[in-house]
Specification:
36% helix; Dihydrodipicolinate Reductase, domain 2; 3 domains; 12-stranded mixed β-sheet; homodimer; 6-stranded parallel β-sheet; Alpha-Beta Plaits; 26% strand; alpha/beta
Chain lengths: 440, 440
C-alpha cells in the first residue's frame, strides 16, 4: 500500500464505545492530522439496526448493515471492531486482516478466545492488530508492558481489572450493605449489565488477565485453565473481619511467574490486601494494575477501566498508532503483529501449585467443641492456623468462625475445606478467600 | 541508512546510569534481538576517567575518553548521552543528531535548557531524540503522554517528580524529625546528593515539569518563569497542622491549562493534599504522576523515580524503540523528532494568575491582639480566612499561628504576606504553602 493522503476508518459497531470513538475522534482529529500530515476520515459505519435510537445520531451517508463489507472495503485502511461478541467479530477481524488492514479492537473476549488465530493471520498478511482498549480502559497498560517496560521480565502483575466488581465491593464496604442490594443499585446506575454474570463471576477479569499474561509471558492461558472466583459469596461481615485483620478486599487478577522454575500462574479471585496498600484504596469503578519488573521494580497504573470516554481514549490512541504505521512506514516492531511476545520456556503451573495465606469463613453450630474439630481437620492436612475470630451468627444457634492460615498449598487447602464442610457442626459451604501480602 | 544487521550503541558516560544500562542491556539483549531480528552491540563507551574505580568493570577494548568521537562515529547508530551536565552533553547530543543518529538521553537539565535547539536539530537532520528516562525514572510517562493519551488535551497534570524530596518529607512526617537531620540521614543513605540544592530547592522537579508541560502543551517553560519553591522551610509542625486539617504535604509539580482561556500554569511547590488521596500516600523515593485528560479522565502512574535500575529500564525502552526505527523504517510519528507537540494557542499565565487555597504559618509574639492585627491585614487584601490554629511556640513568649484561606489570587496573597511580615508582632518570615484540593 502506498502512503495514503487520507486514512479511512471503518467503524464496525456504533454502540456506547463506537459513539464515543466517533465523538472524541472529531475532537482530536485536527491535532492528529497535523501530527500525521494526513487526513483522517470515518468512511463507513456498520450497525446491526440503523433505526435503533442512539444518543449520537448516525451520520448520514456512511451507514451499512454489512460489517463484513466494511472489513473487505479496499478504500478502508483501519477497521475498528467495536461490536462485541466473538462470532461475527471474529469474522470481521480475520477478513480485515486478510486484506492487510489494521484492526483496532476493544474486544477482550475475542482476543482471549481467538488471539492465537488473530495474531497469526495478522502476521501472515502483513496486517496489524491493536488492542489497547481491551484491558483497563483508558490506562495505556498494553503499551507500557509492550514498549515502556520492554527491558523487564515480570515476576508479578496484579490488579483490579473489572470496574463493576470494584464498584460493588466498594459500596458493600462503605455502606455495610449486602451484595444483592448493591448489585441492584449498580444496575440502576448503569455500572452493571442486566446480565451481570460475566463481571461478578470473574470471567471478564479473566479475559483481561489472559491478555496481560500473553503480553508479558507469551503464553495463552484460557480462563478455564485458571482459578476464577467471583464476588457473589462475599458478605459485609467479610469486610469487617478483613478490617479487623488489617486488610481490605478486592477482586484481583494475579499473574505470577517464578523466574527460577519458569512456572506461570494466572488467576482471578477476591483477595485480602493490606489496607495501607495503594491498590486496596482504589475504589469505585477505577481499575489499577501493579506491574513488577525485574529491572524497574514495581510500577502502578490507575484510571477508569471502562465507560465510553476512557475506552474511546484507548481506541483513538490505537488509531493514531495505526495511522502512523500507514503514513510513516512499517514502524515500531513493538506494535507489529509479527513480533509476538517470547515464551522463553515459560509454562503454566497447575492451580494446585498456588501457595498463599488463606482466609476461611465458616458458619458453625454454636456448641462446644466446634473449634477443636475444625482445628484438628486443619492440623491433619498440615495447615497452620494464624488467627481465629469467632462472632455470633445471624441466629443464636449459629456462630461465624473466621480462620486465617500461614502460607499453605492450594491442594492441601482444598482437601481441608472438603473435610471441614463434612463436619456435622459446620453449616453450608465454607467461604475461602486468598490473602495477598502485596505491600508495593 | 540501510537496514543494519547489528545495531551499534555508543554509551557516553559510565556512571551509575551507564553501568545500569550496560548491566541490564546484557540481561535483556537476547529477548530484544529476537524481537528485532537484528543484533544489538554496545560498540564504544566514553568515560572521562578510565582509571576511576567503578562497581561494574569497564569492558576492555571499547573505551575512549572522547565522547565527541563516539557521537560522530559512523559505525554507531544510537548514542546514549548519560554523562549529565549541559555543556559537553549538549555538544555530544547535537553532534550525534547532525550525523543523523538517534540520541537517547536521561538528562532533564539538558532538555529543559536546550530542548528547542535539540529537537530542531533532530528534525533538520532526520535524527531522533528519545528521553523516556528524563522524567519519573522507570515509569513510562513520556510514552503515555505522547502516544497512549494522544486523544486528550490535558487540563491538569501534577505529581511527585523528585524522589529525594519525597523521601525527606516522608521521613519528617513519619519520624517527627526536623529537615536538617533527615537530610543528613538521606545523604548518608545515598538518597540525597552531597550538594542537595538542585533537589531540595525544587529545580530538579522544575526541569521535569518543563518537559511534561512541553509534551502536553507544546510550550517550553523555563524554571525561571515558574514559581519554584523547595522543601527547606517545612517543619515537623507543618505536618501536624496539615494532619489536623486533613492533609498531607508533598512537593508537587503542577501543570494546569485552562481549556477556555488557554492559559498555562507550571509551578513547583510544597502542597497540602487531602490525606485520603492516592498521591498523598505515595511515600519514600517513589514518584507519582496524575494526568487528567479531557477524554480519559484522571489516570495515575506510580513507580521508582530514580536510581540505577529504574532509569536503566527507561533508557533500554528508548534503545528498543530506536532500534525498531532503524530496523523497520521510520516508524511511529509519535517518537519521531519531526512531530513536535502542537501549541494550539496555549500561552503561559503570569504566576500571579494562580488561584488556590493557602496555608500560612506565622511565628508571632504571644501577646493580646496579634490575631486581630493579622486578620485585619488579610481582610484589607480581601483574603478570606477558612481556619485558624494557634499553638504554643518554641519558647513561651512566641506562638505559632496557622491560617488557611478560601480560594485567593497569588497576587493578593503575596501582598498580604508582605504586609503581615511587617507587623511588629510577627517574628521572622511567614511560611506559605499551597493547598491542592485534588481528590482524584
Amino acid at each position: 500500500m502506498s502512503t495514503p493522503n487520507v486514512i479511512r476508518i471503518g467503524l464496525c459497531g456504533f454502540g456506547t464505545v463506537g459513539q464515543g470513538v466517533w465523538k472524541h475522534l472529531a475532537g482530536a482529529r485536527r491535532a492528529l492530522e497535523s501530527r500525521l500530515g494526513a487526513g483522517i476520515e470515518v468512511h463507513r459505519i456498520a450497525v446491526r439496526n440503523p433505526r435503533k435510537a442512539r444518543a449520537v445520531r448516525l451520520p448520514a451517508g456512511r451507514i451499512t448493515t454489512d460489517a463484513l463489507a466494511v472489513a473487505a472495503d479496499p478504500k478502508i485502511h483501519i477497521v475498528c471492531e467495536l461490536m462485541g461478541g466473538t462470532s461475527l467479530a471474529r469474522e470481521v477481524t480475520l477478513t480485515a486482516l486478510r486484506h492487510g488492514k489494521i484492526v483496532v479492537s476493544a474486544n477482550k473476549a475475542l482476543i482471549c478466545d481467538h488471539g492465537a488465530e488473530i495474531f497469526a493471520t495478522a502476521r501472515r498478511h502483513g496486517g496489524h492488530f491493536l488492542f489497547e482498549a481491551s484491558v483497563a480502559g483508558g490506562i495505556p497498560i498494553i503499551k507500557a508492558l509492550r514498549e515502556g517496560l520492554v527491558a523487564n521480565r515480570f515476576p508479578r502483575i496484579y490488579g483490579i481489572l473489572n470496574g463493576t466488581c470494584n464498584y460493588i465491593l466498594t459500596q458493600m464496604e462503605e455502606q455495610d450493605a449486602p451484595y444483592a442490594s448493591v448489585l441492584d443499585e449498580a444496575k440502576r446506575l448503569g455500572y452493571a449489565e442486566a446480565d451481570e454474570a460475566l463481571d461478578v463471576e470473574g470471567w471478564d477479569a479473566a479475559h483481561k488477565a489472559s491478555i496481560l499474561a500473553w503480553l508479558a509471558h507469551g503464553v495463552w492461558v484460557k480462563p478455564r485453565q485458571m482459578v476464577v472466583e467471583g464476588i457473589t459469596r462475599i458478605t459485609p461481615a467479610d469486610f469487617k473481619n478483613a478490617a479487623m485483620l488489617g486488610y481490605g478486599i478486592k477482586l484481583l487478577a494475579v499473574i505470577t511467574r517464578d523466574l527460577d522454575s519458569n512456572e506461570l500462574s494466572v488467576r482471578v479471585h477476591p483477595t485480602l490486601l493490606p489496607e495501607g496498600s495503594v491498590v486496596a484504596n482504589v475504589s469505585g469503578v477505577f481499575n489499577a494494575v501493579s506491574v513488577t519488573g525485574d529491572v524497574v521494580g514495581t510500577t502502578l497504573y490507575i484510571g477508569r477501566g471502562a465507560g465510553q470516554d476512557a475506552t474511546a481514549s484507548a481506541v483513538i490512541s490505537d488509531i493514531a498508532d495505526a495511522a502512523a504505521l500507514l503514513v510513516h512506514g512499517k514502524g515500531s516492531h513493538l506494535t507489529a503483529a509479527e513480533t509476538l511476545p517470547a515464551r522463553n520456556g515459560c509454562r503454566l503451573a497447575p492451580p494446585e501449585h498456588i501457595k498463599c495465606r488463606y482466609y476461611v469463613r465458616l458458619t458453625v453450630k454454636d456448641q462446644p467443641g466446634v473449634l477443636a474439630r475444625v482445628a484438628s481437620v486443619m492440623a491433619r492436612h498440615h495447615i497452620s492456623i494464624a488467627s481465629v475470630i469467632q462472632t455470633p451468627g445471624e441466629d443464636d444457634r449459629a456462630a461465624s468462625l473466621v480462620l486465617t492460615t500461614h502460607e499453605s498449598h492450594e491442594r492441601a487447602m482444598n482437601a481441608t475445606l472438603r473435610d471441614v464442610a463434612r463436619l456435622a457442626s459446620v453449616i453450608g459451604e465454607p467461604v475461602l478467600l486468598r490473602i495477598g501480602d502485596f505491600n508495593d
